[in-house]
Amino acid sequence: MSKYEFWFVVGSQFLYGEEVLKTVETRAREMAAELSEVLPYPLVYKVTAKTNKEITDVIKEANYRDECAGIVTWCHTFSPSKMWINGFASLQKPYCHFATQYGIEIPNEEIDMDYMNLNQAAHGDREHAFIGARLRMPRKIIAGHWQDEKVRERLGTWMRVAVGAAVSKSLKVMRFGDNMREVAVTEGDKVETQIKLGWQVNTWAVGDLVKEMAKVTEAEIDALVAEYEANYDIATDNLAAIRYQAKEEIAMKKMLDAEGAMAFSNTFQDLYGMEQLPGLASQHLMAQGYGYGGEGDWKVAAMTAILKSMGEGGNGASAFMEDYTYHLVKGEEYSLGAHMLEVCPSLAADKPRIETHHLGIGMNEKDPARLVFEGKAGPAIVVSLIDMGGRMRLICQDIECVKPIMPMPNLPVARVMWRALPDLTTGLECWALCGGAHHTVLSYDVTAEMMRDWARMMDIEFVHIGKDTTPEKLEEELMIKDIAWKLKGI
């Protein structure tokens, strides 16, 4: 993720003279340099734009420079918005309108007409905002002083979302085999998804993976097992199962990297030539930033990779998840999330353990090794992307993760327990109304606001279930959205 940067484009005009323009540029460079020290990605000053051509040229360049993940604009002075039309009409990168001001206060003794001509962001940003609204541009507006900690935090968060959009546009998903048979929600239009989200989703035979596994050397396995031992507690005597998972991981990683893929899926129904479903192998790949989806769910695999890229350090605490069962005791309503083998250790509250147990589903000849742990307590979200036929819908629910209320000693899987907002049963009704999938991405790092921003960048429908959501209000919202998105597609 370190390759990305954001371009700072400042608006002005010739009306105020060369001295003002020099001051604007000096201040813009100063702001970009200081902000770059605290933001997750560099903010690179590009131009104080004074003409239609300057704006159009810098936006054309931004569109074709892979390292540019988005543009941040600000109007220090008044920048007539007709100058921005040609450039904005061709913009293909995420865009943040930074409505800020160089100085934090009005200087009582110094303020005169010269000061007013130079420091008129309150004037210029309103003209600038109009053209964004007039062009119906998807954009993020962040208002406040550029040295304010909260404002900087919001700008940095938007940057992380824009990087998620960049990752999406170039994302490749490797499917080992097809989807689990007869499951509806894991299906979807891959062509439309590539048009809309950029994902290249293709299938490789499980036999191709088996061939790659046969090439893995004992020395390679030894090195990876040593890595397992450094990161996890070994709680099994079945070292052969651990070594087999290492062989699977090495082979999958080689295939993923050779193709440039950052997400993958498989299914327990298609393990041709394999002894075990990848468990530890998939979990450790996710810990390195790869996205995963079980049962052939390529949508959740891609979303896992994207949310990871949006997290802290470009590989945050986000993971493939599934609602498994409920605790419906009055006043103690919780959802227990898990999966057979494949939950990322980035969610773990403590050091995960490698265990080996029988897996009573699928075509496993031998017992797979997997990481077992409890998830962290704290606020989080679960996210589901579904294909509504003609459009994609992104559903995001706020949750509060808790330390599991019981040890569950005979459940040998990684697990997370949470309270769904606004409460378990209301949240479930709302999730079902939206058509939310049983597979999700659970994230401690990414917020609902970030997912709303990402959906806006990708031009897809967004639905948020939070503390104030009711089924009645949501049903009305979904009806309006359905009409609006159908009209948009005409």
Task: Describe the protein in words.
- With 490 residues, the chain is α/β, with parallel strands linked by helices.
- The protein has 15 helices and 19 strands.
- The strands form four sheets. It has a six-stranded antiparallel beta barrel with strand order 11-12-17-16-15-18.
- α9 (218-231) crosses α10 (239-259).
- The chain is elongated.
Q: Summary?
A:
This protein has 490 residues and is of the alpha/beta class.
Task: Give descriptors for this structure.
single chain, 490 residues, alpha/beta, six-stranded antiparallel beta barrel, 19 strands
Unreliable runs: none
Average pLDDT confidence is: 94
Distance between the termini: 37 Å
Using only CA atoms, what is the Rg? 25 Å
Main sheet attributes: strand count, strand direction, barrel closure: 6 strands, antiparallel, barrel
Number of helices: 15
Q: Estimate percent helicity.
A: 25-40%
Strand order of the largest sheet: 11-12-17-16-15-18
Q: Which oligomeric form is depicted?
A: single chain
Shape: elongated
Structural class: alpha/beta
- Strand proportion: 15-25%
Tell me the number of strands: 19
SSE order and pairing:
Elements (H helix, E strand, L loop, with lengths): L4 E7 L6 H19 L6 E7 L2 H13 L3 E8 L9 H6 L4 E5 L13 H6 L2 H14 L5 E4 L5 H21 L2 E5 L13 H8 L2 E5 L1 H9 L3 H14 L1 E2 L4 H21 L3 E3 L14 H8 L3 E3 L4 H13 L7 E12 L2 E7 L14 E4 L12 E4 L5 E10 L4 E11 L12 E6 L3 H11 L4 E5 L4 H11 L2 E5 L5 H18 L2
Parallel strand pairs: 1-2, 1-3, 3-4, 4-5, 6-7, 6-9, 8-13, 9-10, 16-19
Antiparallel strand pairs: 11-12, 11-18, 12-17, 13-14, 15-16, 15-18, 16-17
Helix pairs in contact: 6-12, 6-14, 8-10, 9-10, 10-11, 13-15
